[in-house]
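User: I'm putting together notes for a lab meeting next week and I want to include a structural view of one of the chains we've been expressing. I don't have a solved structure, so I'd like a prediction I can at least talk through. The sequence is below, exactly as it appears in our construct file.
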Amino acid sequence: MLIKRDDQTGLATGGNKARKLEYLMAEALGRECTAVVTVGGPQSNHCRMTAAACRRLGLEPYLLLTGPQPAEAEGNLLFDRLFGAHLRFVDTTDEAAIAVELACLEEDARAAGHRPYVIPLGGSTALGAAGYVEAMRELERQATCRVDHVVVASGSGGTQAGLVVGAGAWFGGPRVHGVSVSRPREVLVPLVARLADETARLLGVDPPAADAVVVHDCYFGPGYGVMTEDCREAIRLVARTEGLLLDPVYTGKAMAGLVDLVRKGVFERGQTVVFWHTGGVPALQAYRKWFAGDTAPPT
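Assistant: Thanks for the context. Below is the predicted structure for the 299-residue chain, given as C-alpha coordinates.
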Protein backbone atom coordinates (compact mmCIF):
# COMPACT_ATOMS: atom_id res chain seq x y z
CA MET A 1 0.00 0.00 0.00
CA LEU A 2 1.10 3.56 -0.76
CA ILE A 3 -0.14 6.77 0.87
CA LYS A 4 -0.66 10.03 -1.01
CA ARG A 5 0.04 12.74 1.55
CA ASP A 6 -2.36 15.59 0.91
CA ASP A 7 -2.17 16.30 4.62
CA GLN A 8 1.12 17.99 3.66
CA THR A 9 -0.25 20.48 1.13
CA GLY A 10 0.98 23.27 3.39
CA LEU A 11 -2.00 25.56 3.96
CA ALA A 12 -3.03 25.78 7.64
CA THR A 13 -1.67 22.27 8.47
CA GLY A 14 -2.65 20.93 5.03
CA GLY A 15 -5.43 18.87 3.56
CA ASN A 16 -7.24 18.07 0.33
CA LYS A 17 -9.15 21.36 0.21
CA ALA A 18 -6.01 23.21 -0.90
CA ARG A 19 -6.36 21.65 -4.35
CA LYS A 20 -9.97 22.80 -4.69
CA LEU A 21 -9.28 26.24 -3.26
CA GLU A 22 -6.51 26.84 -5.81
CA TYR A 23 -9.22 27.00 -8.48
CA LEU A 24 -12.07 28.46 -6.43
CA MET A 25 -10.05 31.31 -4.95
CA ALA A 26 -8.67 32.16 -8.38
CA GLU A 27 -12.24 32.57 -9.61
CA ALA A 28 -13.10 34.71 -6.56
CA LEU A 29 -10.15 37.00 -7.28
CA GLY A 30 -10.99 37.07 -10.98
CA ARG A 31 -14.46 38.32 -10.12
CA GLU A 32 -12.92 40.98 -7.84
CA CYS A 33 -14.68 39.60 -4.78
CA THR A 34 -13.59 40.83 -1.37
CA ALA A 35 -15.06 38.10 0.85
CA VAL A 36 -15.73 34.38 0.73
CA VAL A 37 -18.77 32.71 2.28
CA THR A 38 -18.87 28.98 2.85
CA VAL A 39 -20.33 26.25 5.05
CA GLY A 40 -19.30 23.16 7.00
CA GLY A 41 -19.41 21.53 10.42
CA PRO A 42 -17.63 22.90 13.51
CA GLN A 43 -14.69 20.59 12.68
CA SER A 44 -14.78 21.33 8.95
CA ASN A 45 -11.39 21.08 7.26
CA HIS A 46 -12.84 23.00 4.34
CA CYS A 47 -13.84 25.95 6.52
CA ARG A 48 -10.48 26.02 8.28
CA MET A 49 -8.53 26.01 5.04
CA THR A 50 -10.88 28.48 3.33
CA ALA A 51 -10.38 30.94 6.19
CA ALA A 52 -6.61 30.53 5.89
CA ALA A 53 -6.68 30.98 2.12
CA CYS A 54 -8.75 34.13 2.54
CA ARG A 55 -6.18 35.62 4.88
CA ARG A 56 -3.36 34.75 2.49
CA LEU A 57 -5.18 36.52 -0.34
CA GLY A 58 -6.59 39.52 1.50
CA LEU A 59 -10.21 38.33 1.48
CA GLU A 60 -12.64 38.29 4.41
CA PRO A 61 -13.83 34.81 5.51
CA TYR A 62 -17.45 34.18 6.52
CA LEU A 63 -18.20 30.68 7.80
CA LEU A 64 -21.56 29.03 8.45
CA LEU A 65 -21.00 26.15 10.89
CA THR A 66 -23.76 23.56 11.13
CA GLY A 67 -24.71 21.54 14.18
CA PRO A 68 -24.53 22.40 17.90
CA GLN A 69 -22.07 25.13 18.86
CA PRO A 70 -19.23 23.48 20.81
CA ALA A 71 -18.64 24.65 24.37
CA GLU A 72 -14.93 25.09 23.61
CA ALA A 73 -13.03 26.33 20.57
CA GLU A 74 -10.75 23.42 19.76
CA GLY A 75 -9.46 21.61 16.71
CA ASN A 76 -10.50 23.23 13.44
CA LEU A 77 -12.84 25.64 15.24
CA LEU A 78 -9.88 27.03 17.16
CA PHE A 79 -8.12 27.65 13.84
CA ASP A 80 -11.23 29.37 12.45
CA ARG A 81 -11.15 31.79 15.37
CA LEU A 82 -7.40 32.33 15.07
CA PHE A 83 -7.90 33.32 11.44
CA GLY A 84 -10.53 35.83 12.56
CA ALA A 85 -13.33 34.33 10.49
CA HIS A 86 -16.86 35.66 10.89
CA LEU A 87 -18.79 32.73 12.36
CA ARG A 88 -22.48 31.93 12.30
CA PHE A 89 -23.72 28.73 13.96
CA VAL A 90 -26.94 26.96 12.97
CA ASP A 91 -28.00 23.84 14.83
CA THR A 92 -29.51 21.89 11.97
CA THR A 93 -28.58 19.41 9.28
CA ASP A 94 -31.60 20.25 7.12
CA GLU A 95 -30.27 21.30 3.72
CA ALA A 96 -33.06 23.79 3.02
CA ALA A 97 -32.56 25.51 6.37
CA ILE A 98 -28.80 25.61 5.83
CA ALA A 99 -29.29 27.19 2.39
CA VAL A 100 -31.40 29.94 3.98
CA GLU A 101 -28.76 30.60 6.64
CA LEU A 102 -25.99 30.64 4.02
CA ALA A 103 -27.92 33.27 2.04
CA CYS A 104 -28.30 35.33 5.24
CA LEU A 105 -24.56 35.12 5.87
CA GLU A 106 -23.94 36.25 2.29
CA GLU A 107 -26.17 39.25 2.97
CA ASP A 108 -24.18 39.98 6.14
CA ALA A 109 -21.05 40.17 4.01
CA ARG A 110 -22.76 42.49 1.52
CA ALA A 111 -24.04 44.69 4.36
CA ALA A 112 -20.43 45.02 5.54
CA GLY A 113 -19.52 46.42 2.13
CA HIS A 114 -18.08 43.25 0.60
CA ARG A 115 -18.53 41.52 -2.73
CA PRO A 116 -18.93 37.92 -1.55
CA TYR A 117 -18.01 34.75 -3.39
CA VAL A 118 -20.04 31.76 -2.17
CA ILE A 119 -18.47 28.30 -2.01
CA PRO A 120 -20.83 25.37 -1.34
CA LEU A 121 -20.19 22.60 1.16
CA GLY A 122 -16.71 21.13 0.81
CA GLY A 123 -15.89 23.23 -2.23
CA SER A 124 -17.57 20.46 -4.21
CA THR A 125 -18.28 22.08 -7.55
CA ALA A 126 -17.01 21.10 -10.98
CA LEU A 127 -14.38 23.83 -10.68
CA GLY A 128 -13.26 22.62 -7.27
CA ALA A 129 -13.20 19.00 -8.39
CA ALA A 130 -10.91 20.00 -11.27
CA GLY A 131 -8.16 20.25 -8.68
CA TYR A 132 -8.42 16.52 -8.15
CA VAL A 133 -8.36 15.71 -11.83
CA GLU A 134 -4.98 17.40 -11.85
CA ALA A 135 -4.06 15.58 -8.64
CA MET A 136 -4.53 12.25 -10.39
CA ARG A 137 -2.18 13.40 -13.14
CA GLU A 138 0.30 14.26 -10.38
CA LEU A 139 -0.02 10.76 -8.95
CA GLU A 140 0.64 9.31 -12.40
CA ARG A 141 3.90 11.27 -12.59
CA GLN A 142 4.95 10.21 -9.10
CA ALA A 143 4.03 6.52 -9.22
CA THR A 144 6.87 4.13 -9.89
CA CYS A 145 4.53 1.18 -10.38
CA ARG A 146 1.06 0.48 -11.70
CA VAL A 147 -1.66 1.78 -9.38
CA ASP A 148 -4.68 -0.53 -9.32
CA HIS A 149 -6.88 1.07 -6.66
CA VAL A 150 -7.24 4.42 -4.90
CA VAL A 151 -9.10 4.64 -1.58
CA VAL A 152 -10.31 8.04 -0.35
CA ALA A 153 -12.74 9.46 2.18
CA SER A 154 -15.85 10.82 0.46
CA GLY A 155 -18.10 13.40 2.06
CA SER A 156 -19.43 16.15 -0.19
CA GLY A 157 -18.19 14.16 -3.20
CA GLY A 158 -15.89 16.63 -4.95
CA THR A 159 -12.58 14.95 -4.21
CA GLN A 160 -13.83 11.54 -5.32
CA ALA A 161 -15.46 13.02 -8.44
CA GLY A 162 -12.21 14.67 -9.51
CA LEU A 163 -10.22 11.49 -8.89
CA VAL A 164 -12.70 9.44 -10.92
CA VAL A 165 -12.44 11.83 -13.87
CA GLY A 166 -8.65 11.96 -13.58
CA ALA A 167 -8.37 8.19 -13.35
CA GLY A 168 -10.09 7.82 -16.69
CA ALA A 169 -8.55 10.81 -18.41
CA TRP A 170 -4.91 10.61 -17.34
CA PHE A 171 -4.10 7.42 -15.58
CA GLY A 172 -5.41 4.40 -17.43
CA GLY A 173 -8.22 3.78 -15.00
CA PRO A 174 -7.26 2.74 -11.46
CA ARG A 175 -10.42 1.96 -9.50
CA VAL A 176 -11.34 4.82 -7.14
CA HIS A 177 -13.07 3.67 -3.96
CA GLY A 178 -14.89 6.32 -1.97
CA VAL A 179 -15.44 5.48 1.68
CA SER A 180 -18.47 7.48 2.71
CA VAL A 181 -18.17 9.49 5.93
CA SER A 182 -21.76 10.68 6.05
CA ARG A 183 -24.11 9.49 3.32
CA PRO A 184 -25.58 6.15 2.26
CA ARG A 185 -24.44 4.77 -1.06
CA GLU A 186 -27.74 5.46 -2.82
CA VAL A 187 -27.33 9.17 -2.05
CA LEU A 188 -23.59 9.58 -2.56
CA VAL A 189 -23.17 7.63 -5.82
CA PRO A 190 -25.47 9.87 -7.91
CA LEU A 191 -23.96 12.97 -6.25
CA VAL A 192 -20.41 11.96 -7.18
CA ALA A 193 -21.50 10.84 -10.66
CA ARG A 194 -23.17 14.20 -11.35
CA LEU A 195 -20.12 16.13 -10.15
CA ALA A 196 -17.83 13.90 -12.22
CA ASP A 197 -19.89 14.49 -15.37
CA GLU A 198 -19.94 18.26 -14.77
CA THR A 199 -16.19 18.29 -14.16
CA ALA A 200 -15.47 16.29 -17.30
CA ARG A 201 -17.57 18.71 -19.37
CA LEU A 202 -15.81 21.68 -17.81
CA LEU A 203 -12.41 20.27 -18.74
CA GLY A 204 -13.42 18.90 -22.13
CA VAL A 205 -12.50 15.30 -21.35
CA ASP A 206 -14.52 12.10 -21.66
CA PRO A 207 -17.01 11.54 -18.84
CA PRO A 208 -16.36 8.51 -16.65
CA ALA A 209 -18.12 5.22 -17.27
CA ALA A 210 -21.41 4.58 -15.53
CA ASP A 211 -19.82 2.07 -13.13
CA ALA A 212 -16.77 4.21 -12.30
CA VAL A 213 -18.21 5.61 -9.08
CA VAL A 214 -17.65 3.10 -6.29
CA VAL A 215 -18.86 3.94 -2.78
CA HIS A 216 -18.56 1.90 0.40
CA ASP A 217 -21.04 3.07 3.02
CA CYS A 218 -20.59 0.64 5.94
CA TYR A 219 -18.09 2.71 7.91
CA PHE A 220 -19.53 6.10 8.88
CA GLY A 221 -21.50 4.80 11.87
CA PRO A 222 -24.30 6.96 13.31
CA GLY A 223 -23.38 9.92 11.11
CA TYR A 224 -20.96 12.61 10.04
CA GLY A 225 -18.34 13.47 12.62
CA VAL A 226 -19.46 10.74 15.03
CA MET A 227 -16.54 8.58 16.12
CA THR A 228 -16.79 4.82 15.70
CA GLU A 229 -14.75 2.14 17.42
CA ASP A 230 -13.42 0.90 14.06
CA CYS A 231 -12.30 4.45 13.27
CA ARG A 232 -10.47 4.74 16.57
CA GLU A 233 -8.76 1.41 16.02
CA ALA A 234 -7.69 2.46 12.52
CA ILE A 235 -6.24 5.72 13.84
CA ARG A 236 -4.30 3.85 16.52
CA LEU A 237 -3.13 1.18 14.07
CA VAL A 238 -1.64 3.69 11.63
CA ALA A 239 -0.15 5.82 14.41
CA ARG A 240 1.57 2.81 15.99
CA THR A 241 2.76 1.14 12.81
CA GLU A 242 3.61 4.14 10.61
CA GLY A 243 3.92 7.13 12.95
CA LEU A 244 1.21 8.74 10.81
CA LEU A 245 -1.77 10.69 12.13
CA LEU A 246 -5.29 10.31 10.76
CA ASP A 247 -8.39 12.26 11.75
CA PRO A 248 -11.67 11.04 13.30
CA VAL A 249 -14.00 12.61 10.72
CA TYR A 250 -12.54 11.56 7.36
CA THR A 251 -9.30 9.62 7.10
CA GLY A 252 -9.85 7.47 10.19
CA LYS A 253 -13.12 6.18 8.78
CA ALA A 254 -11.58 5.78 5.32
CA MET A 255 -8.74 3.71 6.79
CA ALA A 256 -11.22 1.61 8.75
CA GLY A 257 -12.90 0.93 5.43
CA LEU A 258 -9.63 0.09 3.71
CA VAL A 259 -8.66 -2.37 6.45
CA ASP A 260 -12.02 -4.10 6.17
CA LEU A 261 -11.88 -4.21 2.36
CA VAL A 262 -8.46 -5.86 2.56
CA ARG A 263 -9.81 -8.44 5.00
CA LYS A 264 -12.73 -9.14 2.68
CA GLY A 265 -10.38 -9.77 -0.26
CA VAL A 266 -11.60 -6.87 -2.40
CA PHE A 267 -8.02 -6.26 -3.55
CA GLU A 268 -5.98 -9.00 -5.19
CA ARG A 269 -2.58 -10.03 -3.91
CA GLY A 270 0.11 -8.10 -5.78
CA GLN A 271 -2.13 -5.14 -6.60
CA THR A 272 -1.06 -1.63 -5.58
CA VAL A 273 -3.51 0.34 -3.45
CA VAL A 274 -3.04 4.07 -2.81
CA PHE A 275 -4.66 5.50 0.30
CA TRP A 276 -5.30 9.21 -0.29
CA HIS A 277 -4.69 11.06 2.98
CA THR A 278 -6.99 14.08 2.83
CA GLY A 279 -5.75 15.72 6.04
CA GLY A 280 -7.84 16.84 9.01
CA VAL A 281 -5.42 16.17 11.86
CA PRO A 282 -6.45 19.35 13.82
CA ALA A 283 -9.79 17.65 14.57
CA LEU A 284 -8.01 15.04 16.71
CA GLN A 285 -7.92 17.51 19.60
CA ALA A 286 -11.71 17.76 19.64
CA TYR A 287 -11.97 13.96 20.02
CA ARG A 288 -9.29 13.61 22.67
CA LYS A 289 -11.58 11.80 25.15
CA TRP A 290 -11.65 8.83 22.76
CA PHE A 291 -7.90 8.46 23.11
CA ALA A 292 -7.33 9.74 26.67
CA GLY A 293 -6.97 6.26 28.11
CA ASP A 294 -4.54 4.98 25.49
CA THR A 295 -1.37 3.48 26.85
CA ALA A 296 1.58 1.71 25.33
CA PRO A 297 0.64 -1.69 23.86
CA PRO A 298 1.82 -4.80 25.71
CA THR A 299 5.37 -5.88 24.91
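A couple of points you could mention at the meeting. The radius of gyration is 19 Å. The chain has two domains: 2-13+124-290, 17-123.

User: Perfect, that's what I needed.
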